[in-house]
Write a structure and sequence with these properties.
Two copies of one chain form a homodimer.
Chain A lengths: L3 H6 L5 E3 L8 H9 L4 E4 L5 H14 L4 E6 L5 H10 L4 E5 L7 H6 L3 E6 L2 H10 L3 E5 L5 E2 L7 H11 L4 E4 L5 H9 L4 E4 L1 H4 L8 H9 L5 E4 L6 E4 L2 H11 L4 H8 L3 H7 L23 H20 L4
Parallel strand pairs in A: 1-9, 2-3, 3-4, 4-5, 5-6, 6-8, 8-9
Antiparallel strand pairs in A: 7-11, 10-11
Protein backbone atom coordinates (compact mmCIF):
# COMPACT_ATOMS: atom_id res chain seq x y z
CA UNK A 1 0.00 0.00 0.00
CA UNK A 2 1.22 3.42 -1.02
CA UNK A 3 -0.70 6.60 -0.34
CA UNK A 4 -0.06 10.29 0.10
CA UNK A 5 1.42 9.85 3.57
CA UNK A 6 3.77 7.01 2.68
CA UNK A 7 4.92 8.96 -0.42
CA UNK A 8 5.32 12.25 1.47
CA UNK A 9 7.58 10.74 4.13
CA UNK A 10 9.06 7.86 2.09
CA UNK A 11 7.87 5.24 4.54
CA UNK A 12 6.30 1.81 4.19
CA UNK A 13 3.19 2.21 6.41
CA UNK A 14 1.20 5.41 7.05
CA UNK A 15 1.93 5.10 10.77
CA UNK A 16 3.69 7.95 12.55
CA UNK A 17 4.93 7.65 16.12
CA UNK A 18 4.00 10.81 17.99
CA UNK A 19 6.94 12.88 19.23
CA UNK A 20 6.33 12.84 22.98
CA UNK A 21 8.18 14.41 25.88
CA UNK A 22 10.33 12.06 27.99
CA UNK A 23 9.25 9.03 25.90
CA UNK A 24 10.52 9.38 22.41
CA UNK A 25 14.26 9.66 22.12
CA UNK A 26 16.42 8.10 19.42
CA UNK A 27 15.73 4.53 20.60
CA UNK A 28 11.98 4.76 20.07
CA UNK A 29 12.16 6.88 16.91
CA UNK A 30 14.72 4.66 15.19
CA UNK A 31 12.85 1.49 16.15
CA UNK A 32 9.62 2.81 14.60
CA UNK A 33 11.42 3.96 11.45
CA UNK A 34 13.24 0.64 11.16
CA UNK A 35 9.86 -1.13 11.38
CA UNK A 36 8.47 0.82 8.43
CA UNK A 37 6.71 3.70 10.20
CA UNK A 38 7.90 7.23 10.80
CA UNK A 39 9.68 7.74 14.12
CA UNK A 40 9.74 11.19 15.66
CA UNK A 41 12.15 12.44 18.29
CA UNK A 42 10.24 14.56 20.82
CA UNK A 43 12.21 17.79 21.18
CA UNK A 44 9.80 19.22 23.75
CA UNK A 45 11.74 17.77 26.64
CA UNK A 46 15.24 18.28 25.20
CA UNK A 47 17.80 21.03 25.47
CA UNK A 48 19.58 21.73 22.17
CA UNK A 49 22.68 19.70 23.05
CA UNK A 50 20.57 16.71 24.13
CA UNK A 51 18.49 16.96 20.96
CA UNK A 52 21.67 16.99 18.84
CA UNK A 53 22.89 13.81 20.50
CA UNK A 54 19.52 12.10 19.94
CA UNK A 55 19.48 13.08 16.26
CA UNK A 56 23.00 11.80 15.77
CA UNK A 57 22.25 8.52 17.53
CA UNK A 58 19.04 8.12 15.54
CA UNK A 59 21.00 8.57 12.29
CA UNK A 60 23.41 5.89 13.46
CA UNK A 61 20.55 3.53 14.38
CA UNK A 62 18.51 3.74 11.17
CA UNK A 63 18.96 4.58 7.53
CA UNK A 64 15.22 5.12 7.16
CA UNK A 65 13.55 8.55 7.34
CA UNK A 66 12.79 9.94 10.78
CA UNK A 67 11.70 13.35 12.04
CA UNK A 68 11.55 15.64 15.04
CA UNK A 69 8.48 17.03 16.81
CA UNK A 70 8.90 20.63 17.96
CA UNK A 71 6.31 22.21 20.30
CA UNK A 72 6.53 25.86 19.23
CA UNK A 73 5.65 27.40 22.58
CA UNK A 74 8.35 25.66 24.61
CA UNK A 75 11.73 26.99 25.65
CA UNK A 76 14.64 26.44 23.24
CA UNK A 77 12.39 26.34 20.15
CA UNK A 78 14.68 28.51 18.06
CA UNK A 79 17.89 26.79 19.16
CA UNK A 80 16.31 23.37 18.71
CA UNK A 81 15.21 24.19 15.17
CA UNK A 82 18.75 25.41 14.44
CA UNK A 83 20.09 22.02 15.61
CA UNK A 84 17.53 20.14 13.51
CA UNK A 85 18.43 22.04 10.35
CA UNK A 86 22.14 21.86 11.13
CA UNK A 87 21.88 18.06 11.48
CA UNK A 88 20.04 17.83 8.17
CA UNK A 89 16.78 16.36 9.48
CA UNK A 90 14.20 16.94 6.75
CA UNK A 91 10.94 16.03 8.50
CA UNK A 92 9.54 18.33 11.17
CA UNK A 93 6.24 18.07 13.02
CA UNK A 94 5.33 21.31 14.77
CA UNK A 95 2.70 21.60 17.50
CA UNK A 96 1.46 23.81 20.34
CA UNK A 97 1.85 27.14 18.62
CA UNK A 98 1.24 29.27 15.56
CA UNK A 99 2.14 27.43 12.32
CA UNK A 100 2.78 30.76 10.59
CA UNK A 101 5.90 31.28 12.74
CA UNK A 102 8.17 28.59 11.32
CA UNK A 103 6.57 26.70 8.43
CA UNK A 104 7.91 28.80 5.55
CA UNK A 105 11.41 29.04 7.04
CA UNK A 106 11.53 25.27 7.44
CA UNK A 107 10.25 24.70 3.92
CA UNK A 108 12.90 27.12 2.60
CA UNK A 109 15.43 24.70 4.10
CA UNK A 110 13.86 21.82 2.16
CA UNK A 111 11.95 20.36 5.07
CA UNK A 112 8.64 18.54 4.93
CA UNK A 113 6.43 20.11 7.60
CA UNK A 114 3.39 18.70 9.37
CA UNK A 115 1.48 20.62 12.02
CA UNK A 116 -0.69 19.27 14.84
CA UNK A 117 -4.15 20.85 15.16
CA UNK A 118 -7.28 20.20 17.22
CA UNK A 119 -9.83 22.44 15.49
CA UNK A 120 -10.90 23.83 12.12
CA UNK A 121 -9.45 27.29 12.75
CA UNK A 122 -5.89 26.05 13.18
CA UNK A 123 -6.27 23.60 10.30
CA UNK A 124 -6.95 26.60 8.06
CA UNK A 125 -4.07 28.56 9.62
CA UNK A 126 -1.70 25.66 9.04
CA UNK A 127 -2.80 25.26 5.44
CA UNK A 128 -2.31 29.00 4.85
CA UNK A 129 1.15 28.71 6.39
CA UNK A 130 1.98 26.11 3.74
CA UNK A 131 2.30 22.89 5.74
CA UNK A 132 2.62 19.61 3.81
CA UNK A 133 0.34 17.62 6.12
CA UNK A 134 -1.91 17.98 9.12
CA UNK A 135 -2.15 15.90 12.27
CA UNK A 136 -5.70 16.18 13.65
CA UNK A 137 -5.58 15.24 17.31
CA UNK A 138 -8.75 14.42 19.23
CA UNK A 139 -9.83 14.88 22.84
CA UNK A 140 -8.80 11.33 23.75
CA UNK A 141 -5.12 12.00 23.05
CA UNK A 142 -2.58 12.15 25.88
CA UNK A 143 -0.65 15.22 26.91
CA UNK A 144 -1.62 18.71 25.79
CA UNK A 145 -4.89 18.98 24.02
CA UNK A 146 -7.35 21.39 22.40
CA UNK A 147 -9.98 23.45 24.20
CA UNK A 148 -12.84 22.41 21.90
CA UNK A 149 -12.62 18.81 23.23
CA UNK A 150 -13.55 17.49 19.78
CA UNK A 151 -13.00 13.73 19.61
CA UNK A 152 -11.04 12.06 16.84
CA UNK A 153 -14.22 10.55 15.36
CA UNK A 154 -15.72 14.04 14.93
CA UNK A 155 -12.50 15.91 14.18
CA UNK A 156 -11.32 13.84 11.20
CA UNK A 157 -14.41 14.34 9.00
CA UNK A 158 -14.57 17.99 10.10
CA UNK A 159 -11.00 18.66 8.94
CA UNK A 160 -11.44 16.48 5.84
CA UNK A 161 -14.34 18.77 4.82
CA UNK A 162 -12.21 21.92 4.80
CA UNK A 163 -8.87 20.81 3.39
CA UNK A 164 -7.46 18.35 0.85
CA UNK A 165 -4.08 18.22 2.64
CA UNK A 166 -2.67 14.82 3.64
CA UNK A 167 -4.21 14.11 7.03
CA UNK A 168 -3.06 12.01 9.98
CA UNK A 169 -5.55 11.02 12.68
CA UNK A 170 -4.29 11.14 16.26
CA UNK A 171 -5.90 10.35 19.60
CA UNK A 172 -7.33 6.97 20.54
CA UNK A 173 -5.49 4.99 17.86
CA UNK A 174 -3.98 1.85 19.39
CA UNK A 175 -4.84 -1.01 17.04
CA UNK A 176 -5.00 -2.02 13.41
CA UNK A 177 -8.78 -1.73 13.59
CA UNK A 178 -8.47 1.86 14.79
CA UNK A 179 -6.16 2.61 11.84
CA UNK A 180 -8.79 1.20 9.52
CA UNK A 181 -11.44 3.34 11.24
CA UNK A 182 -9.27 6.43 10.80
CA UNK A 183 -8.80 5.72 7.08
CA UNK A 184 -12.53 5.03 6.72
CA UNK A 185 -13.20 8.50 8.16
CA UNK A 186 -11.01 10.14 5.55
CA UNK A 187 -7.56 10.25 7.15
CA UNK A 188 -4.53 9.19 5.08
CA UNK A 189 -2.68 7.77 8.05
CA UNK A 190 -2.34 7.88 11.80
CA UNK A 191 -0.13 9.27 14.53
CA UNK A 192 0.11 6.93 17.50
CA UNK A 193 1.31 8.10 20.90
CA UNK A 194 0.28 6.11 23.98
CA UNK A 195 0.95 2.68 22.49
CA UNK A 196 4.56 3.69 21.76
CA UNK A 197 4.94 5.55 25.07
CA UNK A 198 4.43 2.15 26.73
CA UNK A 199 6.71 0.24 24.33
CA UNK A 200 10.01 -1.40 25.26
CA UNK A 201 12.02 1.26 23.38
CA UNK A 202 10.24 4.20 25.05
CA UNK A 203 12.57 6.05 27.41
CA UNK A 204 9.77 6.37 29.97
CA UNK A 205 10.28 4.78 33.39
CA UNK A 206 9.16 1.17 33.90
CA UNK A 207 6.79 2.30 36.68
CA UNK A 208 5.10 4.71 34.27
CA UNK A 209 4.76 2.01 31.59
CA UNK A 210 3.26 -0.35 34.16
CA UNK A 211 0.79 2.35 35.26
CA UNK A 212 -0.30 2.70 31.63
CA UNK A 213 -0.72 -1.07 31.30
CA UNK A 214 -2.75 -1.16 34.55
CA UNK A 215 -5.02 1.78 33.63
CA UNK A 216 -8.73 0.88 33.31
CA UNK A 217 -11.24 3.02 31.40
CA UNK A 218 -11.76 6.37 33.05
CA UNK A 219 -8.20 6.39 34.46
CA UNK A 220 -7.19 9.45 32.44
CA UNK A 221 -8.67 12.92 32.60
CA UNK A 222 -8.24 16.21 30.77
CA UNK A 223 -7.23 18.67 33.46
CA UNK A 224 -5.53 22.03 34.12
CA UNK A 225 -7.97 23.60 31.67
CA UNK A 226 -7.24 27.07 33.06
CA UNK A 227 -3.62 26.73 31.91
CA UNK A 228 -3.11 24.39 28.95
CA UNK A 229 -5.48 21.43 29.02
CA UNK A 230 -3.49 18.21 29.49
CA UNK A 231 -4.62 14.57 29.62
CA UNK A 232 -2.96 12.49 32.32
CA UNK A 233 -3.55 9.57 34.67
CA UNK A 234 -5.53 10.48 37.81
CA UNK A 235 -3.05 10.31 40.72
CA UNK A 236 -2.13 12.20 43.87
CA UNK A 237 -0.84 15.17 41.85
CA UNK A 238 -4.10 15.31 39.89
CA UNK A 239 -6.11 15.24 43.13
CA UNK A 240 -4.04 18.24 44.34
CA UNK A 241 -5.06 20.07 41.18
CA UNK A 242 -8.72 19.25 41.82
CA UNK A 243 -8.46 20.47 45.42
CA UNK A 244 -6.79 23.70 44.32
CA UNK A 245 -9.50 24.27 41.72
CA UNK A 246 -12.22 23.64 44.30
CA UNK A 247 -10.61 26.43 46.33
CA UNK A 248 -10.82 28.70 43.24
CA UNK A 249 -7.07 28.70 42.57
CA UNK A 250 -5.95 31.35 40.10
CA UNK A 251 -4.01 30.32 36.99
CA UNK A 252 -0.90 31.65 38.73
CA UNK A 253 -1.51 29.42 41.74
CA UNK A 254 -2.08 26.43 39.47
CA UNK A 255 1.16 27.24 37.65
CA UNK A 256 2.95 27.31 40.99
CA UNK A 257 1.40 23.98 42.02
CA UNK A 258 2.41 22.48 38.67
CA UNK A 259 5.92 23.82 39.15
CA UNK A 260 8.75 22.72 36.91
CA UNK A 261 9.67 19.21 35.95
CA UNK A 262 6.41 17.45 36.88
CA UNK A 263 6.20 15.54 33.62
CA UNK A 264 9.85 14.48 33.88
CA UNK A 265 9.22 13.36 37.47
CA UNK A 266 6.28 11.22 36.41
CA UNK A 267 7.21 9.90 33.00
CA UNK A 268 10.98 9.60 33.20
CA UNK A 269 11.64 9.20 36.93
CA UNK A 270 8.56 7.06 37.59
CA UNK A 271 7.16 9.05 40.53
CA UNK A 272 3.57 7.86 40.17
CA UNK A 273 2.27 10.00 43.05
CA UNK A 274 3.82 13.41 42.44
CA UNK A 275 4.55 13.25 38.74
CA UNK A 276 2.47 14.37 35.75
CA UNK A 277 1.62 11.08 34.02
CA UNK A 278 0.64 12.23 30.53
CA UNK A 279 -1.10 9.51 28.50
CA UNK A 280 -4.16 9.09 26.27
CA UNK A 281 -7.46 7.28 26.83
CA UNK A 282 -5.99 4.46 24.73
CA UNK A 283 -4.13 3.46 27.92
CA UNK A 284 -7.22 1.38 28.76
CA UNK A 285 -6.55 -0.64 25.59
CA UNK A 286 -2.86 -1.30 26.30
CA UNK A 287 -2.27 -4.49 28.28
CA UNK A 288 1.40 -5.23 27.84
CA UNK A 289 4.74 -3.50 27.24
CA UNK A 290 5.94 -4.75 23.86
CA UNK A 291 8.87 -4.09 21.55
CA UNK A 292 8.18 -1.71 18.67
CA UNK A 293 8.73 -4.37 15.99
CA UNK A 294 6.01 -6.51 17.53
CA UNK A 295 3.65 -3.55 17.91
CA UNK A 296 4.10 -2.60 14.26
CA UNK A 297 3.60 -6.20 13.10
CA UNK A 298 0.40 -6.50 15.08
CA UNK A 299 -0.93 -3.15 13.82
CA UNK A 300 -0.32 -4.13 10.21
CA UNK A 301 -1.64 -7.67 10.45
CA UNK A 302 -4.78 -6.60 12.35
CA UNK A 303 -5.35 -3.85 9.79
CA UNK A 304 -5.09 -6.32 6.91
CA UNK A 305 -7.35 -8.84 8.62
CA UNK A 306 -9.94 -6.14 9.31
CA UNK A 307 -10.10 -4.90 5.72
CA UNK A 308 -10.94 -8.46 4.71
CA UNK A 309 -13.75 -8.60 7.27
CA UNK A 310 -15.14 -5.31 5.97
CA UNK A 311 -15.11 -6.68 2.42
CA UNK A 312 -18.09 -8.79 3.45
CA UNK A 313 -20.04 -5.72 4.48
CA UNK A 314 -22.14 -4.05 1.86
CA UNK A 315 -25.64 -2.84 2.40
CA UNK B 1 -26.04 -7.20 4.29
CA UNK B 2 -27.33 -9.13 7.26
CA UNK B 3 -25.59 -9.22 10.60
CA UNK B 4 -26.40 -9.79 14.26
CA UNK B 5 -28.06 -6.40 14.66
CA UNK B 6 -30.24 -6.61 11.55
CA UNK B 7 -31.28 -10.14 12.57
CA UNK B 8 -31.94 -9.22 16.19
CA UNK B 9 -34.27 -6.35 15.33
CA UNK B 10 -35.52 -7.63 11.93
CA UNK B 11 -34.37 -4.52 10.11
CA UNK B 12 -32.62 -3.87 6.79
CA UNK B 13 -29.67 -1.73 7.94
CA UNK B 14 -27.85 -1.86 11.31
CA UNK B 15 -28.77 1.77 11.94
CA UNK B 16 -30.75 2.66 15.06
CA UNK B 17 -32.17 6.13 15.62
CA UNK B 18 -31.48 7.14 19.21
CA UNK B 19 -34.57 7.67 21.36
CA UNK B 20 -34.16 11.32 22.33
CA UNK B 21 -36.23 13.61 24.51
CA UNK B 22 -38.41 16.16 22.65
CA UNK B 23 -37.10 15.00 19.25
CA UNK B 24 -38.18 11.49 18.62
CA UNK B 25 -41.90 10.97 18.62
CA UNK B 26 -43.84 8.69 16.27
CA UNK B 27 -43.07 10.81 13.20
CA UNK B 28 -39.31 10.38 13.49
CA UNK B 29 -39.40 6.78 14.70
CA UNK B 30 -41.77 5.60 11.95
CA UNK B 31 -39.81 7.45 9.26
CA UNK B 32 -36.57 5.74 10.31
CA UNK B 33 -38.22 2.32 10.49
CA UNK B 34 -39.89 2.84 7.11
CA UNK B 35 -36.47 3.67 5.66
CA UNK B 36 -35.00 0.37 6.85
CA UNK B 37 -33.45 1.40 10.16
CA UNK B 38 -34.81 0.99 13.66
CA UNK B 39 -36.79 3.97 14.91
CA UNK B 40 -37.09 4.55 18.65
CA UNK B 41 -39.70 6.64 20.41
CA UNK B 42 -38.02 8.59 23.21
CA UNK B 43 -40.14 8.01 26.31
CA UNK B 44 -37.92 10.20 28.49
CA UNK B 45 -39.99 13.30 27.76
CA UNK B 46 -43.42 11.63 27.66
CA UNK B 47 -46.11 11.05 30.23
CA UNK B 48 -47.73 7.60 29.95
CA UNK B 49 -50.79 8.87 28.05
CA UNK B 50 -48.61 10.78 25.57
CA UNK B 51 -46.37 7.75 25.11
CA UNK B 52 -49.42 5.57 24.40
CA UNK B 53 -50.59 7.95 21.70
CA UNK B 54 -47.12 8.00 20.09
CA UNK B 55 -46.91 4.21 20.09
CA UNK B 56 -50.37 3.92 18.52
CA UNK B 57 -49.56 6.52 15.87
CA UNK B 58 -46.25 4.84 15.15
CA UNK B 59 -48.01 1.50 14.61
CA UNK B 60 -50.39 3.24 12.19
CA UNK B 61 -47.48 4.87 10.33
CA UNK B 62 -45.26 1.81 9.80
CA UNK B 63 -45.57 -1.96 9.64
CA UNK B 64 -41.83 -2.28 10.27
CA UNK B 65 -40.33 -2.94 13.72
CA UNK B 66 -39.82 0.04 16.00
CA UNK B 67 -38.92 0.40 19.66
CA UNK B 68 -39.05 2.70 22.67
CA UNK B 69 -36.16 4.16 24.65
CA UNK B 70 -36.78 4.29 28.41
CA UNK B 71 -34.40 6.25 30.67
CA UNK B 72 -34.71 4.25 33.90
CA UNK B 73 -34.09 7.11 36.32
CA UNK B 74 -36.83 9.42 35.01
CA UNK B 75 -40.30 9.89 36.37
CA UNK B 76 -43.06 7.60 35.05
CA UNK B 77 -40.64 4.74 34.27
CA UNK B 78 -42.90 2.05 35.68
CA UNK B 79 -46.08 3.44 34.13
CA UNK B 80 -44.33 3.97 30.81
CA UNK B 81 -43.09 0.39 30.73
CA UNK B 82 -46.63 -0.79 31.51
CA UNK B 83 -47.87 1.17 28.48
CA UNK B 84 -45.12 -0.24 26.25
CA UNK B 85 -45.94 -3.83 27.23
CA UNK B 86 -49.67 -3.18 27.04
CA UNK B 87 -49.27 -1.84 23.49
CA UNK B 88 -47.24 -4.90 22.51
CA UNK B 89 -43.99 -3.09 21.61
CA UNK B 90 -41.29 -5.77 21.57
CA UNK B 91 -38.09 -3.69 21.37
CA UNK B 92 -36.95 -1.67 24.36
CA UNK B 93 -33.76 0.33 24.78
CA UNK B 94 -33.06 1.21 28.40
CA UNK B 95 -30.60 3.87 29.55
CA UNK B 96 -29.62 6.07 32.49
CA UNK B 97 -30.06 3.52 35.24
CA UNK B 98 -29.37 0.03 36.52
CA UNK B 99 -30.00 -2.64 33.85
CA UNK B 100 -30.70 -5.22 36.58
CA UNK B 101 -33.93 -3.42 37.44
CA UNK B 102 -36.01 -4.19 34.37
CA UNK B 103 -34.18 -6.40 31.88
CA UNK B 104 -35.45 -9.78 33.06
CA UNK B 105 -39.04 -8.57 33.48
CA UNK B 106 -39.02 -7.19 29.96
CA UNK B 107 -37.52 -10.37 28.55
CA UNK B 108 -40.19 -12.40 30.38
CA UNK B 109 -42.70 -10.43 28.30
CA UNK B 110 -40.89 -11.46 25.12
CA UNK B 111 -39.10 -8.18 24.58
CA UNK B 112 -35.70 -7.69 22.98
CA UNK B 113 -33.71 -5.44 25.31
CA UNK B 114 -30.71 -3.23 24.59
CA UNK B 115 -29.04 -1.10 27.25
CA UNK B 116 -26.97 2.06 26.79
CA UNK B 117 -23.60 2.12 28.60
CA UNK B 118 -20.57 4.40 28.70
CA UNK B 119 -18.03 2.26 30.55
CA UNK B 120 -16.83 -1.31 31.05
CA UNK B 121 -18.46 -1.68 34.48
CA UNK B 122 -21.98 -1.09 33.19
CA UNK B 123 -21.34 -3.21 30.10
CA UNK B 124 -20.65 -6.13 32.44
CA UNK B 125 -23.70 -5.28 34.57
CA UNK B 126 -25.92 -5.17 31.49
CA UNK B 127 -24.60 -8.49 30.23
CA UNK B 128 -25.21 -10.06 33.65
CA UNK B 129 -28.74 -8.65 33.58
CA UNK B 130 -29.31 -10.55 30.33
CA UNK B 131 -29.61 -7.79 27.74
CA UNK B 132 -29.67 -8.79 24.07
CA UNK B 133 -27.45 -5.95 22.88
CA UNK B 134 -25.37 -3.04 24.13
CA UNK B 135 -25.22 0.55 22.95
CA UNK B 136 -21.78 1.97 23.80
CA UNK B 137 -22.06 5.74 23.83
CA UNK B 138 -18.96 7.93 23.72
CA UNK B 139 -18.13 11.35 25.17
CA UNK B 140 -19.05 13.11 21.92
CA UNK B 141 -22.70 12.09 22.18
CA UNK B 142 -25.39 14.68 22.92
CA UNK B 143 -27.50 14.77 26.04
CA UNK B 144 -26.65 12.81 29.17
CA UNK B 145 -23.28 11.18 29.16
CA UNK B 146 -20.83 9.09 31.19
CA UNK B 147 -18.40 10.39 33.82
CA UNK B 148 -15.37 8.57 32.36
CA UNK B 149 -15.52 10.79 29.23
CA UNK B 150 -14.34 7.86 27.12
CA UNK B 151 -14.72 8.65 23.41
CA UNK B 152 -16.46 6.35 20.96
CA UNK B 153 -13.14 5.46 19.30
CA UNK B 154 -11.76 4.19 22.64
CA UNK B 155 -15.01 2.83 24.07
CA UNK B 156 -15.94 0.46 21.22
CA UNK B 157 -12.75 -1.67 21.30
CA UNK B 158 -12.81 -1.57 25.11
CA UNK B 159 -16.34 -3.01 25.25
CA UNK B 160 -15.62 -5.40 22.37
CA UNK B 161 -12.79 -6.86 24.47
CA UNK B 162 -15.02 -7.81 27.37
CA UNK B 163 -18.23 -9.02 25.74
CA UNK B 164 -19.40 -10.86 22.64
CA UNK B 165 -22.86 -9.25 22.78
CA UNK B 166 -24.19 -7.46 19.68
CA UNK B 167 -22.80 -3.93 19.99
CA UNK B 168 -24.03 -0.59 18.67
CA UNK B 169 -21.65 2.38 18.56
CA UNK B 170 -23.12 5.74 19.53
CA UNK B 171 -21.66 9.24 19.74
CA UNK B 172 -20.13 11.10 16.80
CA UNK B 173 -21.75 8.96 14.10
CA UNK B 174 -23.20 11.19 11.39
CA UNK B 175 -22.10 9.74 8.06
CA UNK B 176 -21.71 6.51 6.14
CA UNK B 177 -17.95 6.78 6.68
CA UNK B 178 -18.48 6.95 10.44
CA UNK B 179 -20.66 3.82 10.27
CA UNK B 180 -17.83 2.08 8.45
CA UNK B 181 -15.38 3.28 11.10
CA UNK B 182 -17.65 1.93 13.84
CA UNK B 183 -17.88 -1.48 12.16
CA UNK B 184 -14.11 -1.47 11.61
CA UNK B 185 -13.67 -0.98 15.37
CA UNK B 186 -15.77 -4.03 16.15
CA UNK B 187 -19.31 -2.65 16.47
CA UNK B 188 -22.17 -4.50 14.74
CA UNK B 189 -24.13 -1.35 14.05
CA UNK B 190 -24.67 2.23 15.12
CA UNK B 191 -27.09 4.38 17.06
CA UNK B 192 -27.40 7.85 15.55
CA UNK B 193 -28.85 10.78 17.51
CA UNK B 194 -27.89 14.31 16.45
CA UNK B 195 -28.35 13.75 12.72
CA UNK B 196 -31.95 12.62 13.30
CA UNK B 197 -32.59 15.32 15.94
CA UNK B 198 -32.03 17.83 13.13
CA UNK B 199 -34.10 15.93 10.53
CA UNK B 200 -37.37 17.11 9.02
CA UNK B 201 -39.38 14.52 10.96
CA UNK B 202 -37.81 15.42 14.33
CA UNK B 203 -40.35 17.09 16.60
CA UNK B 204 -37.71 19.60 17.74
CA UNK B 205 -38.35 23.29 17.07
CA UNK B 206 -37.11 24.80 13.79
CA UNK B 207 -34.94 27.27 15.73
CA UNK B 208 -33.22 24.39 17.53
CA UNK B 209 -32.63 22.53 14.26
CA UNK B 210 -31.17 25.69 12.71
CA UNK B 211 -28.88 26.15 15.75
CA UNK B 212 -27.60 22.61 15.20
CA UNK B 213 -27.00 23.30 11.51
CA UNK B 214 -25.16 26.54 12.37
CA UNK B 215 -22.97 24.99 15.09
CA UNK B 216 -19.21 25.07 14.37
CA UNK B 217 -16.69 22.78 16.05
CA UNK B 218 -16.40 23.50 19.75
CA UNK B 219 -20.03 24.71 19.93
CA UNK B 220 -21.06 21.91 22.30
CA UNK B 221 -19.73 21.21 25.77
CA UNK B 222 -20.21 18.57 28.45
CA UNK B 223 -21.46 20.48 31.46
CA UNK B 224 -23.34 20.15 34.78
CA UNK B 225 -20.85 17.47 35.79
CA UNK B 226 -21.80 17.86 39.46
CA UNK B 227 -25.33 16.68 38.60
CA UNK B 228 -25.59 14.42 35.57
CA UNK B 229 -23.10 15.39 32.87
CA UNK B 230 -24.96 16.60 29.77
CA UNK B 231 -23.67 17.74 26.35
CA UNK B 232 -25.40 20.81 24.96
CA UNK B 233 -24.82 23.87 22.79
CA UNK B 234 -23.08 26.73 24.60
CA UNK B 235 -25.70 29.48 25.04
CA UNK B 236 -26.88 31.99 27.64
CA UNK B 237 -28.17 29.20 29.90
CA UNK B 238 -24.81 27.42 29.71
CA UNK B 239 -23.02 30.65 30.61
CA UNK B 240 -25.24 30.94 33.68
CA UNK B 241 -24.14 27.45 34.69
CA UNK B 242 -20.49 28.46 34.28
CA UNK B 243 -21.00 31.59 36.38
CA UNK B 244 -22.74 29.61 39.09
CA UNK B 245 -19.92 27.08 39.12
CA UNK B 246 -17.33 29.85 39.35
CA UNK B 247 -19.16 30.98 42.47
CA UNK B 248 -18.89 27.43 43.88
CA UNK B 249 -22.58 26.62 43.46
CA UNK B 250 -23.67 23.49 45.31
CA UNK B 251 -25.37 20.66 43.41
CA UNK B 252 -28.65 21.86 44.99
CA UNK B 253 -28.10 25.39 43.65
CA UNK B 254 -27.28 24.00 40.21
CA UNK B 255 -30.45 21.90 40.33
CA UNK B 256 -32.41 25.02 41.16
CA UNK B 257 -30.78 26.94 38.31
CA UNK B 258 -31.55 24.08 35.93
CA UNK B 259 -35.13 24.02 37.15
CA UNK B 260 -37.78 22.04 35.36
CA UNK B 261 -38.51 22.00 31.65
CA UNK B 262 -35.20 23.49 30.40
CA UNK B 263 -34.76 20.85 27.72
CA UNK B 264 -38.37 21.23 26.56
CA UNK B 265 -37.89 25.00 26.46
CA UNK B 266 -34.80 24.67 24.29
CA UNK B 267 -35.49 21.70 22.06
CA UNK B 268 -39.26 21.81 21.63
CA UNK B 269 -40.11 25.48 22.19
CA UNK B 270 -36.99 26.81 20.45
CA UNK B 271 -35.82 29.17 23.21
CA UNK B 272 -32.18 29.30 22.18
CA UNK B 273 -31.14 31.57 25.07
CA UNK B 274 -32.79 30.01 28.10
CA UNK B 275 -33.31 26.45 26.94
CA UNK B 276 -31.10 23.38 27.35
CA UNK B 277 -30.01 22.61 23.79
CA UNK B 278 -28.88 19.00 24.05
CA UNK B 279 -26.92 17.83 20.99
CA UNK B 280 -23.71 15.93 20.18
CA UNK B 281 -20.38 17.09 18.75
CA UNK B 282 -21.61 15.75 15.41
CA UNK B 283 -23.60 19.01 15.18
CA UNK B 284 -20.47 20.49 13.56
CA UNK B 285 -20.88 17.95 10.74
CA UNK B 286 -24.59 18.64 10.09
CA UNK B 287 -25.15 21.35 7.50
CA UNK B 288 -28.77 20.97 6.48
CA UNK B 289 -32.13 19.81 7.80
CA UNK B 290 -33.10 16.82 5.63
CA UNK B 291 -35.92 14.29 5.52
CA UNK B 292 -35.16 10.93 7.11
CA UNK B 293 -35.45 9.03 3.81
CA UNK B 294 -32.71 11.20 2.29
CA UNK B 295 -30.51 10.87 5.38
CA UNK B 296 -30.82 7.08 5.31
CA UNK B 297 -30.10 6.95 1.56
CA UNK B 298 -27.00 9.09 1.99
CA UNK B 299 -25.74 7.03 4.95
CA UNK B 300 -26.11 3.78 3.03
CA UNK B 301 -24.65 5.01 -0.24
CA UNK B 302 -21.67 6.69 1.45
CA UNK B 303 -21.08 3.51 3.47
CA UNK B 304 -21.07 1.39 0.31
CA UNK B 305 -18.79 3.81 -1.54
CA UNK B 306 -16.36 3.86 1.38
CA UNK B 307 -16.06 0.09 1.65
CA UNK B 308 -15.03 0.10 -2.01
CA UNK B 309 -12.36 2.71 -1.31
CA UNK B 310 -11.04 0.65 1.59
CA UNK B 311 -10.84 -2.42 -0.64
CA UNK B 312 -7.83 -0.76 -2.25
CA UNK B 313 -6.06 -0.48 1.09
CA UNK B 314 -3.89 -3.37 2.14
CA UNK B 315 -0.48 -2.98 3.66
Amino acid sequence: MQNRITSLFHIQYPIVQGGMIWCSGWKLASAVSNAGGLGLIGAGSMRPDVLRTHIQQCKAATNKPFGVNVPLLYAHTEENIKVILDEGVKIIFTSAGNPALWTQKLKDHGCTVAHVIANAKFARKAEEAGVDALVAEGFEAGGHNGREETTTLCLIPLIREITTLPLLAAGGIASGKAILAALAMGADGVQIGSLFAASTESSAHEFYKQAVVDAPDGATVLTLKQLNPVRLLRNAFYRQVVQAEEKNATPEQLKELLGKGRARMGIMEGDLENGELEIGQAAALIHQVKPVAQIMNELVSEFNKSTHILNNFTF
